[in-house]
Design brief:
By secondary structure, the chain is mostly helical. It contains eight helices and no strands. The relative contact order is 0.05.
Length: about 200
């Protein structure tokens, strides 16, 4: 800051001219950005992305952040966030980026091998124990033993579904059952049921 009055005055004028140049460049940029945002907003099918474009568009048209929040029915913090992204990095930073998602624990080859093993062998044949049927906990043990990867029971059921296997409980049939005696029992049972219904 200068001591003399007219030098301070000169400094203020210089700062005013610089600010005016910045404003005019910003206005030129805004006009181009407004046109681009209108086009992007009109062609956008995703609602969330359209809201982002509209928030910045309204800001460039002179609406306050509070007004934009009320118009779009969005929280003011969300509106501020999108406007800040635009100011710092331009329109390119307004695009929603696809989230990568959770990385799989087993490779595709391991999943295929697991599906083949489960469908072709019993737990006993696979060396897991003296069990006749596969259960989610048994498959968890197999995966941990074979691939050194831990799964929860729920996670294993999700994996089975993803690789095309359904998790169902087996129904048992008696090996020594006599079909003729079973039919006789069914007939007797029907007769008994008819008598009790009367």
């Amino acid at each position: 800051m200068y001591i003399f009055g007219d030098k301070i005055f000169t400094n203020i004028i210089l700062n005013g001219i610089i600010d005016q140049k910045r404003r005019s460049k910003a206005m030129e940029r805004n006009e181009k950005d407004i046109e681009q945002l209108i086009e992007l907003s009109q062609n956008e099918k995703r609602v969330k992305q359209k809201l982002i474009y509209d928030a910045v568009l309204l800001f460039l048209e002179g609406y306050t952040r509070g007004e934009i929040s009320k118009i779009l029915h969005e929280k003011q913090g969300t509106v501020n966030y999108h406007i800040r992204k635009y100011i710092n990095n331009g329109i390119e930073d307004l695009h929603i980026k696809k989230q990568p998602g959770y990385q799989k624990r087993l490779t595709d080859e391991q999943e295929t091998e697991l599906a083949e093993l489960i469908t072709s062998k019993t737990p006993e044949e696979a060396g897991i124990g003296v069990f006749a049927n596969w259960t989610a906990p048994l498959i968890c043990c197999l995966v941990e033993k074979k691939y050194s990867v831990k799964y929860s029971e729920r996670g294993m059921r999700d994996l089975l579904e993803r690789i095309g296997l359904s998790y169902t409980r087996p129904t048992y049939t008696l090996a020594k059952a006599n079909p003729q005696k079973q039919e006789e029992f069914k007939e007797k049972f029907k007769d008994l049921k008819k008598k009790t219904d009367k």
